Amino acid sequence: MNLVRAELYEQAIHYEKGSFITSTGALATLSGAKTGRAPRDKRVVKDDVTGKELWWGKGSPNIEMDEQTFLVNRERAVDYLNSLDKVFVNDQFLNWDPENRIKVRIVSARAYHSLFMHNMCIRPTPEELEEFGTPDFTIYNAGQFPCNRYTHYMTSSTSIDLNLARSEMVILGTQYAGEMKKGLFSVMHYLMPKRRILSLHSGCNMGKDGDVALFFGLSGTGKTTLSTDPNRYLIGDDEHCWTETGVSNIEGGCYAKCIDLSREKEPDIWNAIKFGTVLENVVFEEHTREVDYADKSVTENTRASYPIEYIPNAKIPCVGPHPKNVILLACDAFGVLPPVSKLNLAQTMYHFISGYTALVAGTEEGVKEPRATFSACFGAAFIMMHPTKYAAMLAEKMLKHGATGWLVNTGLVRWKLWFRKPNQVSIHKENH
Ligand SMILES: Nc1ncnc2c1ncn2[C@@H]1O[C@H](COP(=O)(O)OP(=O)(O)O)[C@@H](O)[C@H]1O
Ligand SMILES: C=C(OP(=O)(O)O)C(=O)O
Residues 1-27, buried b or exposed e (16+ Cβ, 10 A)? Predict the structure, then answer.
């Protein structure tokens, strides 16, 4: 339970094929067949309460399952975990706002998953661990074991099942670690708005004068890169809450895309890849153990997960005052949007709700090339309620605190690269 990094390294290297220490001390791991999220395999239990509270039907990310099927998958996962010689248990926290902290327990079969969540969630002190008690939410990650695809509601051997009434999530048939962190984010997208707190799929940083900026963006479109700015304090790279008093990071770590990572362009992320960092699905030279960040042979979605304090100018505790700027990162693969636009509130809401951007290759299963998409709230895969619920709260907060909206096109730089290849020009035509 809550093993330290060194022990998790030893367990991973000893028992998990494809685990190695890189030249800078990071733990390189392989996530197996799945190297990105599988949104079509995510299920949410629809019951009397969630049937009314959540967004269902066309456009919604919530695909229903019933309680009985959840229990079938849960039993399968728990039986699998019980059949192993050992499992890993992490008891940790979500949310740096002490009044809205959530206790989570992650039960998993792989040291890689335990180290990943150790990095991504907030790490308790020994005293906090002593007094941890019953968790508010539990994940049973049996990702190496498939679900039975002939079970009702299943369409493949992968299933990520969320049961809000039981406060539990079950993972079968995928070892991609991002499912755990994004699964918990979906939970926060449910729990926080019920407390009138706005949950945000955004990075967040703060200038020397205390000016806070939010960076909304779909997965892989620049939240981590742009919030990790050497000239500003990093509050968090991906998931935040906006309350009556200001912003708080939900997580205790960052999850950076590292395809084509370079020391020159992203020095802080480069330097964070050291002992304790999980490097997923990267390729390295066998003898020097130097990572080749340009190598996409396992996936384009190579990732680094590190504790937030590995970034030198992280602001700890990860909280800040009300945001002054709300930046919507649209990764426009097709050259439609200008580089930077200042938005009024109505325009901000329009872009927030329609969420025009691109699904970046590799972040979701089956996405091999950048694909134009409309992703409500710049994270449609993770919202639980109708987008207008989040949008109305955002509008209210921006108005109250005088925040300015911006639309920044992070696809522009890549767009030039993408369009060099003739086969990708045809995607452009298909999508128009
Ligand atoms: N204009 C740009 N802005 C931000 N990132 C860019 C840009 N052009 C290329 N990139 C690359 O895009 C990726 C963005 O990934 P990341 O910041 O981890 O996304 P997110 O945190 O939103 O999931 C990185 O690999 C970064 O180097
Ligand atoms: C980890 C993911 O997203 P992000 O890059 O936004 O953290 C993901 O979508 O699997």
Answer: ebbebeebbebbeeebeebebbebebb
